[in-house]
Amino acid sequence: MNKPVKRINLALLLMLLLVAGVLLSGCGSGEQNSAGSTEQGAEPYQLGAVLEVSGNSSSLGVPERDTLLMLVEKLNQNGGIDGHPVELTILDNKSDETETVLALKKLIEKDVLAVLGCASSGPSMAMIDTVQKEQVPMVSMAAASTIVEPVGERQWVFKTAQSDIVTIENIITLLKARSITKVAFLYMNNAYGDGGRIAFSAAAKENGIEIVTEEKFEASDKDMTPQLTKVKAGGAQAAIVWAIPPSASIITKNFRDLGLSIPLIHSHGVGNQNFIDLAQGTADGVILPIGKLAVVSQIPDNDPQKEVLETYIADYQAKYNAPPNSFGGYAWDAFNLVVSAIETAGPDRAAIRDALENNTAGFVGVSGVFNISPEDHNGLGVDSMVLVKIEDGQWKLME
Amino acid sequence: MSDQLIQLLITGLTLGSIYALIALALVTTFNITGILNLAQGEFTAIGALLAISLYAAGIPMFAAFVLAIILVAVMGGCLERAAIHPARRASALTLIIITIGLSISLRGLALLIWGTDTYSLPAFSRGGSILVGGAVLNPQSLWILGLALITLVVLYAFLGLTYTGKAVKAAVINRTAARLVGINPNTVSFWAFVGSGALGAAAGIFIAPVTMSTYDMGFMLGIKGFVAAVIGGLNNVGGAVLGGLLLGVLESCSAGLISSGLKDGLAIIILLLVLMVKPQGIFGLLGERKI
């Protein structure tokens, strides 16, 4: 009788160990980091960030986390904000909307002055209701323009990534220059892809461009050939893809495999080296609008952003031994906008919101020169992006 | 239009052979041990990630693959001894729940080792895609389909023709009777996990050039493989392959001809239909044990 009991105990023990392992790893990824210093006497300022450190959008969230950790360390070394060190709590939302809201509530309970996040559009949209209700300033690093519009219902929400409208205006200009009138539009079935689709359809209609094929795919899809066969049959003169890696890389591979010869235009969602690496050489020839960070050595010296860009690249390179990408740039802008708002407004949520809206005009960031106003909570114009073509795995500025 | 159909069919077969490989591993373990190993997808993910890391570390491609397959096979064996063996007297349901625990732990482990990045592997054969009457075939698809077919043949031969294979089957049908004639079900269960680890890893390595690899790729693959196995009939090795191919073709055709939004929904609808109308699977034998 004794033996089976022992066995069951052993099995139970093993299961406990497994569960403990999972819990530990879960905590490890959940409570990402709390950077800050307590050497100074002044009370630290609390800031929070909710980022896609794991899951489908982690290629965006990870460089943003790294950038934030670097910036907060540097800020505290230089004495913080008016002598107050900054404590930044970064939580992982696992690229999931529900996790995002839970993480956000945790941060609000910690009395953070402002929340940075998220990296992608869906989770960012999920945060809006809560920050509006709790009246916490939020700076998103995602693309969809609906994150900050209509401004009347989004008083507390700002964002640093160029809105899809800015990207689309750049693409429309390119299409017009090449007198392309029929395009195929392929997009990820999520808030980012849908935002792109809505904005692009509107802009295309205005400019007399016809969308002959419109197809979507899931972020986790492994093969987009079926959707691309429709593009082939539809007679489009160019294909526009609204996605982020890895699915953006897979569709690029499928596109080349199918031997489609029309121009392939991506959105700024692929603005990282990861996209080129995963596409394994098939990314060459892809055209996309992107922030100036990727092509800093090719932009003229008199560009107002040149100095900011070079400093960011040097700092990031020194700390992580890798070049930064535009997503990290969005985090740089978000963090520094909030810091500059706290510098003018002091540790008060409402005052920080007002400062973000009114006192940051002309702020030179990595993603562009911001002109945030009560009507525009993004503040970036068409000139914040340039068109690049990928050649030999490198971004090349287009004429 | 017919070009498009051929293309959809080819893409569907590629996707389908991926599902078929996972389904094969699931069905094999199920038939040998009576356990549905829900950590099968994780074996695949870890196999692919290991091979990619070993290859990146400078080991020649072929050696890296073999090493990764061996490592995952050993891991499969160790997990069987550590988690399944101590609980071997428990009900099948308990054992399945243990494999769920294993799957979550393995995913956590992969997250700690490889992080959240996506990795990819170069295609096995050089050269571009092959033209098949206006449609394009990725050469890697042939490798995947080939692996599925070879595995199928080997499994058939093993279970049907060899003495060991028959012993294995006997151990499932009646543990006690098998023991009486000198077959040790514990050893059989151990080797089943070693085998499914090796097969899972091989599947992962073969599909990595097409699907790319992330720490969490195993979950979705596991589910699709499970659906494929149920469609084909859980106790039928050939059915698993056909079920996988059928699922792949249906997915690709529904995405290409109807709507891309319907793709995953269709898989679940088919699963429900099969479970309602013919719960033993389309190719399953009547009168067999209930799942």
- In CATH, the architecture of chain B is Orthogonal Bundle
**What structural category characterises the helix and strand content of chain A?**
alpha/beta
Intertermini distance of chain B: 42 Å
Q: Mean pLDDT of chain A, rounded to whole units?
A: 88
Unreliable segments of chain B (pLDDT under 50, ≥5 consecutive)? 286-291
Can you put this structure into words, describing what you see?
With 399 residues, chain A is of the alpha/beta class. Chain A has 2 domains: 32-162 and 307-380, 3-Layer(aba) Sandwich (Rossmann fold), CATH 3.40.50.2300; 164-298 and 385-397, Rossmann fold (3-Layer(aba) Sandwich), CATH 3.40.50. Chain A starts with a helix and ends with a strand. Chain A has 12 helices and 15 strands. Chain A is globular, with a radius of gyration of 22 Å. Mean pLDDT of chain A is 88; it is low at 24-32 and 36-40. Chain A has helices at 2-30, 58-77, 97-109, 121-134, 164-177, 191-206, 225-234, 247-257, 273-279, 306-320, 326-345, 349-358, and strands spanning 31-35, 45-51, 86-92, 115-116, 138-140, 157-159, 182-188, 210-217, 238-242, 264-266, 287-291, 363-364, 369-370, 385-391, 394-397. Chain B is mainly alpha-helical and 291 residues long. Chain B has a single domain, classed as ABC transporter involved in vitamin B12 uptake, BtuC, CATH 1.10.3470. Helices cover 74% and strands 2% of the residues of chain B. Chain B has a two-stranded antiparallel ribbon. In chain B, α1 (2-33) packs across α9 (217-232) and α9 crosses α10 (237-258). The chains are: A alpha/beta (399), B mainly alpha (291). Chains A and B meet through α1, α2, β8, α7 and α8 of A and α1, α4 and α10 of B.
List strands and helices in order, with pairings.
The complex is a heterodimer of chains A (399) and B (291).
Chain A: H1 2-30, E1 31-35, E2 45-51, H2 58-77, E3 86-92, H3 97-109, E4 115-116, H4 121-134, E5 138-140, E6 157-159, H5 164-177, E7 182-188, H6 191-206, E8 210-217, H7 225-234, E9 238-242, H8 247-257, E10 264-266, H9 273-279, E11 287-291, H10 306-320, H11 326-345, H12 349-358, E12 363-364, E13 369-370, E14 385-391, E15 394-397
Parallel strand pairs in A: 2-3, 2-4, 4-5, 5-6, 7-8, 7-9, 9-10
Antiparallel strand pairs in A: 1-3, 11-14, 12-13, 14-15
Helix pairs in contact in A: 2-11, 3-4, 5-6, 8-9, 11-12
Chain B: H1 2-33, H2 40-56, H3 61-84, H4 92-114, E1 130-132, E2 135-137, H5 139-161, H6 163-173, H7 175-180, H8 185-211, H9 217-232, H10 237-258, H11 263-277
Antiparallel strand pairs in B: 1-2
Helix pairs in contact in B: 1-5, 1-8, 1-9, 1-10, 2-3, 2-4, 2-8, 2-9, 3-8, 5-6, 5-8, 9-10, 9-11, 10-11
